[in-house]
Target: Rho GTPase-activating protein 10
Amino acid sequence: MGLQPLEFSDCYLDSPWFRERIRAHEAELERTNKFIKELIKDGKNLIAATKSLSVAQRKFAHSLRDFKFEFIGDAETDDERCIDASLREFSNFLKNLEEQREIMALSVTETLIKPLEKFRKEQLGAVKEEKKKFDKETEKNYSLIDKHLNLSAKKKDSHLQEADIQVEQNRQHFYELSLEYVCKLQEIQERKKFEFVEPMLSFFQGMFTFYHQGHELAKDFNHYKMELQINIQNTRNRFEGTRSEVEELMNKIRQNPKDHKRASQFTAEGYLYVQEKRPAPFGSSWVKHYCMYRKAAKKFNMIPFEHRSGGKLGDVEVFSLKECTKRHTDSIDRRFCFDIEAADRPGPLTMQAFSEEERKQWLEALGGKEALSHNFNRAIIPRPEGSAQLDKMGFTIIRKCISAVETRGINDQGLYRVVGVSSKVQRLLSMLMDVKTCNEVDLENSADWEVKTITSALKQYLRSLPEPLMTYELHGEFIVPAKSGSPESRVNAIHFLVHKLPEKNKEMLDILVKHLTNVSNHSKQNLMTVANLGVVFGPTLMRPQEETVAAIMDLKFQNIVVEILIENHEKIFRTPPDTTFPEPTCLSSSPPNAPPRQSKRQGQRTKRPVAVYNLCLELEDSDNPNPSKEDTPTSSLDSLSSPSPVTAAVPGPPGPDKNHLLADGGSFGDWASTVLSSRKARAVYPCEAEHSSELSFEIGAIFEDVQTSREPGWLEGTLNGKRGLIPQNYVKLL
Model:
């Protein structure tokens, strides 16, 4: 699990857990700042210290290898995983170049140092300044509230009203500042992934020319470089889409914060000041608590929390509510007070709300006498239903727009990404949705309507549907395969789910995706690749039912679903799904009872060769600089080559523990001593390849010419004329 999303709606409550999440984000940015600072220093050493170049390169390589990007949410896209893995790939390559001991070019300053310094100064530095302002306003806000709540109720009404206005204005200012700070924190976490890796990519590209074999190495590295550039561009594109959605949500919440409160398990929650009585000469004190009440169970929880002391959290206290009574100012010299009596706690508790409105809300929730007509936690406000429907008129509109686009603008650059003028789009939609004027609108031959107006109208119509085309019900199920599994299993899962859609939804989706496939086929002219179309139509076809930051962070996975639909349109819409395919929520990459296959990220395959370079670049751990004969590869690297070695993490079985028992009861030592002489093996478990260098097979498959592989825990063999990797503990020696 990565960093938790910072919800804008939590800015209003400013709960202790919200502050904990903010501190986690701040700590991660500080870690990144220190790392970049150290990396810049290492880069300068490469230029200035020729004699210590080898040491500097190793340090630089170690810095890259040890750093890992954090992500917001519960999963990464394939592109993000590739970006995450790219630092280790860079590290591996740099360590192998150490023997060359060539002097790196002075261009390192321009391609690496300056961009990192600029990012650290302009981006991370800006966040630091925002943090200072946020901390200062936190201190000011809660100090003013303390002072305000200590005002005597006997003061003149005009004085009290003026003080109330001042506090409310200050709270509003603090709330807006909190929104901006939260937005900036999350933006920088996403931005750093591509703004940091791009300078690294430029540095490596420039470095090749300063080695004797630079030209050849650069040519071999070119494919990986292009893959990574695509990963970076895809991540950047998704970032832009996500940022606009986040800003839109932030503005909505800024305008109506109370209408966007998140659904909660508690009937009421928020801060209250609790009176703590002391022995005779000391009077009493008021301590701020974060309080939560569950009406069904009549359970009241409260926990002391002080923002100004660095967010110190006290012990939680839970009791059962008996009754709640409003306190009037003639009985206590404080406003907004009420008493609570507990069934399992002696004596009443006197509490003070921040305002009269909040006191009324608490009284309603706790069963007091004065109650409002609305709930403390409002239900999620459903989206207003527009006039757009999946009826005969709707299909006519979509087909009409698609026909016009394919006739007039299929090669227009930025198709569907360039938006039309809002007033023209609305006018076109109004005419198309009117039975009287729909047939009169000529989109294919009339110059009155620009292509960008037509594409914007199509997207707007789909967004105006009461429910997204891919439905709220299946939204979560569509997201699941996009977050995990092999490419083939993802396609199968999406195929399965599309056929669970209502018939009209599936028909409309078929029409649209067929069109988008045609658009992507003209990407050389219109620049709208499958990835770009995914960014545009992901939020349109799969909008979430509740608008939250967490939902927006899943936009990138919605985009992946749309990409899969476009790339596999014929299979998904023209063939029936596999009826034996499991529900997506039950997908597993391992067969039943099969030995577990562990991913590269878990550290089990620490010596994976970088096959894209077509060179023997296998690296040894720093603790074992001299490989033994047993570790030396015995077969051609060409048999392991892959056109995209970082596109997905390569899974594998557990490492070669010599005491690990195989399927036939033998140990790894037995296997190693006999496999080269036998050269045949039979599959005891089915396996689906998750990388182009692996073999897929069913139980009982017979492999020829089986040999040990340089990949720990893997074998090489031939099946049906194809040679590739086989999980060692999935087969039995014949």
The longest strand covers residues 284-294. The CA atoms of residues 510 and 574 lie 9 Å apart. Residues 12-218 form a domain with the Substrate Binding Domain Of Dnak; Chain:A; Domain 2 fold (CATH 1.20.1270.60). The radius of gyration is 31 Å.
